[in-house]
């Protein structure tokens, strides 16, 4: 097993340009140099304020492909070849095209001091939780797109969009100690509150899976090893089943006919579970942390925040195959179609 992926940037330096921007609010223009073909694995480095790109088909790694704003907190692929990055302290959303390295395509400002936390895409709009102002933003993700602000219960952290419904998860005690958890359900067309769903404390992450039409909500109080996954029907607003994982589960991904989730900053463990709410297996990867997962076929990419590494693994055999040197504090990681 190769420990560090050295020399990869050299192999593709004729094709790619890494950017070190002097200002996160006025980056250089996107480069016209193309990136290698095929799907892309992209992750943001939470302490380094950069995005790295890995191209599996050509085994090419580009470190510092883009510069983010301050304290990036979430990343999604909202359309083929494009990624959106949410920046908490800079209070904005940046959009990049993975077909070229360099600067952002455009960015959209959110309310200053609102601490944008997580986001979801419903096919037409981007939804963002604003942790410190007890609000949700509905964003037209185009240059100069409008931003609508919706008031909501305190401590909005996680968010998931099913198309007609938007589910907002609430954290525990911060910034409002009277709110400890739960999910608020919004009508996507009007932004009105439809109902609420009782969950355990501290809804940290949520993800909508289109193949089932269900939302997976992750709860944990971190220090109590009480990690739990609630599988939620967003239309009937019911919890259908729950998976006791322990630890602090993060964003889940589809693996085969089931699902996989890492233990976040708590450990190097990964949990495998099915749609019926059964924990099928636990894998101790040996990583220091498993803060983000992305999957292409049988290959699972694991972001290790503590070790500044991204591990390439075979999730079917539970074997680490290789490792990539990431920037400072790799977290959110996604597979991008092109």
Summarize the entry for a quick read.
The chain is an all-beta fold. It has one helix and 28 strands.
Descriptive overview:
- The chain has 338 residues and is mostly beta strands.
- It has a single domain (8-336), classed as 7 Propeller (Methylamine Dehydrogenase, Chain H), CATH 2.130.10.10.
- It has one helix and 28 strands.
- The protein has one helix at 8-11; strands at 40-45, 50-55, 60-67, 72-79, 82-87, 92-97, 106-109, 116-121, 126-130, 135-139, 147-151, 156-161, 165-170, 181-187, 193-201, 203-209, 214-219, 228-233, 238-244, 252-255, 258-262, 269-273, 279-284, 292-296, 299-304, 309-314, 319-325, 330-336.
- The strands form seven sheets. The chain has a four-stranded antiparallel β-sheet with strand order 3-2-1-28. A four-stranded antiparallel β-sheet has the order 4-5-6-7, with no helix packed on it. Strands 8-9-10-11 form a four-stranded antiparallel β-sheet, with no helix packed on it.
- Strand 25 and strand 26 (309-314) form a beta hairpin.
- The longest helix has 4 residues, at 8-11.
- The chain is globular and about 50 Å long.
